């Protein structure tokens, strides 16, 4: 299993675009936004916080969404289309281990991305690190698992890598929209903002734990439920070839 994870990690590093977007893009975006003086000024709309303080949780959403909904389904669907999974089924190593390795790579990449983001937050902009570390860690883990389960569901139902990429892009854009990446959440209608609270990877739970409050157990429960349901359906409907 460790050998498979190492190989998948090497393959991930050979894709510069994926590495750049998954690991470096959130931090680069924070640097760009932080270069604007208006976004470094405390604003009553954010509880006298700066825009960049309130936007950090959305940057975490971007990193997790790319890994779970762009990279994972495209890679798995490509492996199936090219017969990689079918070949694995003829060996003592179960093809399921390849899926677990993909999840492990996503977790490693996500951890690197969020760690780098924290360094930029603290060193460059003097943004406090998460005030509720355990809640933030649990939310990140559940957020990554729920998005990965949805990504596997897309891969399971898509006959080709191209169709998987298309459906994954739709899911990715929805998650980014409700996560506040395209439109700040305070500008959304109340109904849309409310819906976004319960969608993976839990932008409100991320923000609450970063600012110091324990994440809402209901939000975490919804993430766990999505992980179990989507993961179970994907496992039962997945075709190895």
Automatic annotation (TrEMBL):
ABC-2 type transporter transmembrane domain mapped to chain residues: 4-195
Mind listing the UniProt keywords for this protein, alphabetically?
Antibiotic resistance, Membrane, Transmembrane, Transmembrane helix
Keyword set includes Zinc-finger: no
Question: Which Pfam families does the UniProt record give?
Answer: ABC2_membrane
Q: Does the keyword Transmembrane apply?
A: yes
Its record classes its membrane topology as:
Multi-pass membrane protein
The domain of life for this entry's organism is: Bacteria
Question: Where are the membrane-spanning stretches?
Answer: 12-34, 54-77, 98-125, 131-157, 164-183, 218-238
Subcellular locations according to the entry: Membrane
Give the chief site where it resides. membrane
InterPro entries associated with the record: ABC-2_transporter, ABC2_TM, ABC_2_transport
Protein name, entry field: ABC transporter permease
Source organism (scientific name): Saccharothrix xinjiangensis
